[in-house]
Amino acid sequence: MTAGDGPLKSSTFYTSTHYTMSVKIALGQINPTVGDFSGNAAKIVQFALQARSAGAGLILFPELAVCGYPPRDLVERAPFVAHCRTTVERIAAETHGIAVICGIVTPAEADSGKKVMNSAALLREGRVEFIQSKMLLPTYDVFDEMRNFAPAKSQRLFSFCGKRMALTICEDAWNDKRFWNRRLYGIDPVEELVRGGGNFVLNISASPFWLGKRELRHDMLAAIAKNQKVPVAMVNQVGGNDSLVFDGSSLVLAPDGQVIAQGKSFEEDLIYFDSDKLTGDMHPQIAGEEASAYEALVLGTRDYVRKCGFQQALVGLSGGIDSALTAAIAVDALGSGNVIGVGMPGPYSSPGSIDDARELAGNLKIRFELLSIQEIYEAARRTLAPVFAGRPEDVTEENIQSRARGLLLMSLSNKFGALVLSTGNKSELAVGYCTLYGDMVGGLAVISDVPKTLVYRLSAYVNSRHKVIPEATIEKPPSAELRPDQKDSDSLPPYDVLDAILEDFVEELRSAEQISRSHNFDLDLVRRVIRMVERSEYKRQQAAPGIKISAKAFGYGRRFPIAAQAEV
Question: 3.40.50.620, 3.40.50.300, 3.20.20.60, 3.40.190.10: which CATH number matches 291-492+536-540?
């Protein structure tokens, strides 16, 4: 096939006469970058040739691996789609001797109303032999695939190594009526393909991580294997793209639901399994909520910084636990030589906080700069004094301090070409306990999906591996230090109470009355917290992108109006 052949076409079935019934199949768990066609193709070819050398006859790569997932509105650009096509032709030409399945964008049917489809291509001996397109296009949470893609009207089987393969793409496998209490779609592609004679399910995925997602994914795939009485192989993308982190954790399951092969979590991997004997590689996966959350944050930070073209990061170090955790993540993501810590004491900063920030920087072996905001703060107050005459001091003066720090961080960012990592946590962002153009400045909000209670747990996890966060930072009461003796508890309920309310309201969509009853919390307190959440939407929509590790993160997966009057 050449670039001038028109839309990608394929034969109905791909049959092999020179492979035995038992074939080694590989899963290429790679970390693609959206739009990096040459880099993604190089990874695919490298993994494919390595698998060929190991004796594999087929290798699977993730959903839209050729262009990276999620491409979002890039698929509306004709050159993007054309580049995807020429790239897959190049991959086919360079992978003779092994069959390759990879995710690509293909032109849609003229009557679909969309320009493209989310597809999988089977490549063999220099050509595209089979195309399968995705039927189920999710629109919930972070997904908006109906915006960009046309759904397939039907799907077909292809033959390989004596098996009739049911090739599905991510969401196509997420609609088993015997697993879900309430299904989102009227059709089940897996069920239809198996009913049509399929006896081996292949699934190429870009399934984002959140805490609990790996367990859910395993249980869902195991249910398919047992319900349909067929083996299931799923290869998942790994890496960070914008706010999303993909954990990999690829799986192969026998018809009884037992895992017979699995890939690592949060790193690229290449695993093999035998298509007939159903035996394979079992690579270790990260276990435990704290360890999983931390690795996701490290991977998301590393990929966001580097895929955006930065090498260094800046973190404002207050001596508090949020900035300490953010700095620890940054060092594990980028290396100590690529992280700069900046202490910015103001009129109410305690000597202990400055000492804690300096000690943290020393423990992490990062460069540390100490820049006082005192003169900037006083100059701003003098400038504003005539306009503020006759008005009492309030939160305005507190926020001047925060915005002075933001000014310094962004100035350093411009000068050094380093990305600022903001340090606010999910609890603060939820209720607006943060300052626009102050502590919210930055290119990435590393822990914006980490509730304060989890911040403490992650900090303990960091210190369990290597003690870097000072004990004083962990033990002292949280404070923004914007006025004398200020404590977070002056404005907010205790964080264990606040986080319980926020989880129920933001992630579980429970009402104030339901939350109050289930936790025995004061109803007025719950309503006050909910009002704070709703009134802070304008802040969140101006915040830096964060890294999603929960089922419902702030960002484009949670879309609420700013100008609204919601009754609590």
Answer: 3.40.50.620
